[in-house]
Amino acid sequence: MPGASFSELARMSGITVQSVHGAVKALVAAGLVRDRNARAGSASTLEITTEGALLLRRARRAAAEVDERLFGPDADPIQQRLGAAVRAAFPGPPPSWPGAERDRRPSPAPTFSLTGAWPRLQET
């Protein structure tokens, strides 16, 4: 999330700030994220690396495949109805997320997407 503080990331993720710090440290160590201001007491500026962007794309594809199997046209009719009910209850990301308006484009197929509820990461 461009410009998001660790506190904002924690709120969006439903975890503690300490957990966000640990996750970011692990992502940096794995070479998936770069911390431009890795100094105590300063705000971090995080950027996704090329390797991180590739992994993120693969993860999104995998999640979309799971969505298709669970809620797509070939899924059990009860699962299709469940997906439709969840989609109706949660039509898109909260407007406070950066890019939320961009993510509110209509879906061409009546399927539920778990990935549509996740915040988008800015790729650089």
From TrEMBL:
Q: Which residues form the HTH marR-type domain?
A: 2-34
Q: Which SUPFAM superfamilies match?
A: Winged helix' DNA-binding domain
Query: Mind telling me which Pfam families this protein's record contains?
Result: MarR_2
GO molecular-function terms, A-Z: DNA-binding transcription factor activity
The domain of life is Bacteria
Q: Where is this region: Disordered?
A: 88-124
Q: Which InterPro entries match?
A: HTH_MarR-typ, WH-like_DNA-bd_sf, WH_DNA-bd_sf
Protein name in UniProt:
Putative transcriptional regulator
